[in-house]
Amino acid sequence: MKLKNKVLVGASVATTLVVPAALVAANSEETKAKSLAQIFAEVEAEATTNTAGEGNGAETETAPEQPATPAQPEAKSVATASSPEEAKAQAKSYIAELSISEELKTYTNQKIDAATTVDEVETQLQDVQELAVKITSLMAFQYLTATQKTVYSNDLVEKYKSDSSDKSTEYTTVFEAAEESDTLMRNVDTLLTNADALKQNRNLVYALANESNETLKKVQDLKASKEALDTKVTEVNSLKSDTNLDTVKASLQELETKKDALAEAEKDTDAKIKAVVSETKTELKNFVEGTSHISESLKTKTKDKADKTNWLSSLVELKNTIVALEEDTPVAVAEVNKQDAVHGETKYLNAEDDKKQAYDNAVKAIKDLLEGDKLNSETTTAPQLKKLTEDLKAAEAALNGEGRLKEVQDTAKAAIDALPYLSTAIKEHFKAEIDKQTLVAEVERLQKQATDLNASAEELINQVKAAIAVKPTVKYTLASETPDNLKTALDEKQTAGENLLTHTAASGETPESYVLTSKDTEKDAVNTAAKAIKDAIDALDGDKVLAKKREDAKAQINALEFLSDNAKSQYNNKIDTLEVPKAIDGVVTVATTVNAKAGELINEVKKHPNYKEKDGNYIEADQDKKTAFDNAMDAATALLENNLLREWVENLPEADAKLDVETKKDEVVRTYSELNGTERLNKAKEDANTALDGLNYLPEEYKQAKRDEINDASSINAVNAIKDAAKALNASVEALVNALRDAKAYKTNENYTEATPEKQAAFNNAITNGDALLSNEILKDKATTQEAVDAATAEIKRTKAALDGFKKVAMDKLNEYKNARLLVNLSRVAVDEYVKQINDLTNPTKEQVDAIVNEAIEVNKVAGEHIRLLSSATSTIIDKPARYENASKETKANFNNLVEQQLALYNKVKDAARGQNPRTLEAELKAATSLEKITESFNALSQAFNKENLKAAEAKPVVNNKVESNSDNNWKKWLWIPVSLLVVGTVIIAAGLLRVYSKKKASK
């Protein structure tokens, strides 16, 4: 069976639109409520998105879409098996994996078992594997039903079980038949889908839903075609869904024929839809062309839109709208054409203005839609046109001119009676004229004329009153009289205006009044009189004259040099309150006078800038006079701000009284004249010059220079500073003179004569420099400072103090004693300590130096006595005489300890001639080895000898460093030793001193 592989295509399929089943009826009121403009817009939108009803309905052959071939398992083989049994076993294992029925697997296994060779087994295996592949591919077909797949699968199995030797060819024949059937089923499904879409076509559904609508044409033909299509669809679906295995192949054969019939039915229905659209468009355009009340331009546009649309619904809406407008337009035109007639009727002529306006507006609203007697508005709907017509009828009915004249006349006369500025005669005249009228408009015109005249009279009265009111003001009183007399001009215009009026003076509680007098007075005359008065008032320039006067006065005040902005502002503010030129001049006079006095005060204050720091007459004055001037200046400056008078003075003082600024200025002048600083400064200068005369140590040239400085000085402090500096310098020079005199006399003193050459040279240089400072008369230069003189004096004193003659003599003496061993009881180091004490003295006197030398001699003397006593004590301890043995144990212990402690004060020295010498004072002089301490030690040991059993050998204590002894013979026998030593020492010292003296004499 060869299929055609054709599919019906066309616009009706491609543009199918599913629409709701419940469609709006084609003749519903909703379709009539749309304007042509709305439908036109919808048509334009449709034209850009749809092509409904168009297409040639031709068939286009398309290649059937082939189903995807399922993946096939790899073919297995047993050809390499070594035996039929091995081949059978392998083949059965392969068959178990195949996607075939169990019954077929059993059948195949039986065929395998019956085979006797490996080749036979291989043939059976390959046949069943190919069968499995075909069945799998068959089952993958997309469009065959399950029944159809079963039938073709059974055919394949039947071919397998046959005795045919070429099963592969037979499999292919069955498979190709199944494949063609699958393609047929696919094409049938496509046709059925297209049929369903076609039956939902918007135009088809709309046409069938509105088949009775007269606008739609050829609907019955479309209906019959659609029913035939439904029949074909039913037949095809019946064959397509056959589930009988015995008849399914026959159904497929018949389905091929039915498929073509279905395609033809679809093409016919599609053509019928197009025919309905085409015929309906033609009928609509013919109808539009035949209308009588639609403008030609609107007809043309409507037909153009009909050509553009492909929707039946839009065509019906156009028809319905045109029909409705065609019906309603002549009714509206008839009402509009009545306007001229209505305008001539009393009901319109005497109607209220708003009602006449409402009627005319209603006529215009319809006229705006027309072109002549034809509708020319595409935006107007039939209901809107009908509503406008009804509104016009209602507006005509509302015209209330009939019977309104009397009412309007009464109202107008009452209004005229209420006009306050017209005389009774004028009012009666207007009312009589109103009674004569037959038209409301004329009545209203007369009422307006009276009202306007009343307004003009009111304006005239107001201007007359304004003229009366302006006369007491500066605007009138100060008005110019040249070149034109503005006041006279106003008087004349006022009189002319008053001549048109009747004036009634106030009486009791009744106020005065003005009314227009004559009924013959025209409104223009009244307006002219009122304007003349107003212009005359406006021409008055008294206020400008006053403003100019004020401006000139303010300019004078603002130009005043010594008034602050605040003061000027106060004067200007007062001027703004004055309207009399003389009073304004008075303010200027006050301000000018105050400014002059303020200037005197300010100039006086300016004479004393920074007076507290710079004005000697103030600075050196007595405090009470300074305080008085300070108070006067403070009071003066308190009136000022930035050297300007801060506050204004409103009025000048009376009679001979003075302004406060003048009083404050006079006080500054008076208190300054009483300052005596200059007088006191001159007295201080006189005293200073007198003091200079008495300074005898200063040269005259220097004193004259200082006199000049004093005379130029601006303060007492400066004068005193110069004087005090000169006195101090004089004292310094005097001190230098005295220092030089003393220094020269001191050169005979041992402290100078025995000093080292360096010290002497420094002292001599200081004297020389001091002499030079005086002898060179350097003080003639007034720039010579006191420091230079004081430095020269100090240098003389310093070098004098540095002279070391006393120290040198004393140190030489001690060193000679040491070298001659005259201080036998002192070690050399101890003697050096005394030498060091002398050397460390600063500017010592001879007494200070001699005191140290004498102390060394005394220490040596007392130490000798102490050593003797220690020797005696040591012998006692060694020899242990009865006086020692009989002492208590404690006494002996204390004695022993005391001796031991005191022995520690001395160092043992060897004497080659005498063997072991007891001791000498230890190397370094300490607190324990001073003269006082050694004396105390001697006395302590002496007391120990005189205690208890030791009394056998008593020792006298040292008194005033003199040793007195009342000891027994044992004690006295030791006395020769220190005495001998003392004598020998004295001789040696004398010899040494004689030798030193001889050397010095020889050196001189």
Automatic annotation (TrEMBL):
<feature type="coiled-coil region">
    <location>
        <begin position="245"/>
        <end position="272"/>
    </location>
</feature>
<keyword id="KW-0812">Transmembrane</keyword>
<feature type="transmembrane region" description="Helical">
    <location>
        <begin position="974"/>
        <end position="997"/>
    </location>
</feature>
<dbReference type="Pfam" id="PF01468">
    <property type="entry name" value="GA"/>
</dbReference>
<keyword id="KW-0472">Membrane</keyword>
<feature type="signal peptide">
    <location>
        <begin position="1"/>
        <end position="21"/>
    </location>
</feature>
<feature type="coiled-coil region">
    <location>
        <begin position="436"/>
        <end position="463"/>
    </location>
</feature>
<feature type="domain" description="Extracellular matrix-binding protein ebh GA module">
    <location>
        <begin position="533"/>
        <end position="592"/>
    </location>
</feature>
<keyword id="KW-0732">Signal</keyword>
<dbReference type="InterPro" id="IPR009063">
    <property type="entry name" value="Ig/albumin-bd_sf"/>
</dbReference>
<keyword id="KW-1133">Transmembrane helix</keyword>
<dbReference type="InterPro" id="IPR002988">
    <property type="entry name" value="GA_module"/>
</dbReference>
<feature type="domain" description="Extracellular matrix-binding protein ebh GA module">
    <location>
        <begin position="668"/>
        <end position="727"/>
    </location>
</feature>
<dbReference type="Pfam" id="PF07554">
    <property type="entry name" value="FIVAR"/>
</dbReference>
<feature type="domain" description="Extracellular matrix-binding protein ebh GA module">
    <location>
        <begin position="392"/>
        <end position="451"/>
    </location>
</feature>
<feature type="compositionally biased region" description="Low complexity">
    <location>
        <begin position="47"/>
        <end position="75"/>
    </location>
</feature>
<protein>
    <submittedName>
        <fullName>ECM-binding protein homolog A</fullName>
    </submittedName>
</protein>
<keyword id="KW-0175">Coiled coil</keyword>
<dbReference type="InterPro" id="IPR020840">
    <property type="entry name" value="Extracell_matrix-bd_GA"/>
</dbReference>
<feature type="region of interest" description="Disordered">
    <location>
        <begin position="47"/>
        <end position="84"/>
    </location>
</feature>
